[in-house]
Design brief:
Blueprint (H helix, E strand, L loop, with lengths): L2 E5 L2 E4 L4 E8 L7 E7 L6 E6 L5 E3 L7 E6 L4 E6 L8 E8 L3 E3 L3 E6 L1
Parallel strand pairs: 2-11
Antiparallel strand pairs: 1-3, 3-8, 4-5, 4-9, 5-6, 7-8, 9-10, 9-11
Length: 114
């Protein structure tokens, strides 16, 4: 059974930082592309950052220079360090694992107050 469990969300003031974690189980973590997505009410889920099994990284333009994705294959965990947060970063953040199939976590809410 595949499980992706996000943690680290919360309320932060604009300019602040948060670190999200996603612990994975039930998959061969090291070969999966891991990603962070976010969604706000009435909008489509959008990709925030992704990291392949080989370590290639991509970011949405809106978070480049502020967010950093990383992974620890020994801990089956992917992280998203979010700095210089803006109110527009407020969303539910979801972890995704993809190889042959795509799996999603239940999400963690990030609220950035102005």
């Amino acid at each position: 059974q595949v499980q992706l469990v996000e943690s680290g969300g919360g309320l932060v003031q604009a300019g602040g930082s948060l670190r999200l974690s996603c612990a994975a189980s039930g998959i061969v973590f090291s070969i999966n592309t891991m990603g962070w997505y976010r969604q706000t009410p009435g909008k489509q889920r959008e990709m925030v950052a992704g990291i392949t099994g080989g370590g290639s990284i991509s970011y949405a333009d809106s978070v480049k220079g502020r967010f950093t994705i990383s992974r620890d294959n020994a801990k089956n965990t992917v992280y998203l360090q979010m700095n210089s947060l803006k109110p527009e970063d407020t969303a539910v953040y979801y972890c995704n694992a993809y190889k042959t199939f795509s799996y999603w976590g239940k999400g963690t809410l990030v609220t950035v107050s102005s």
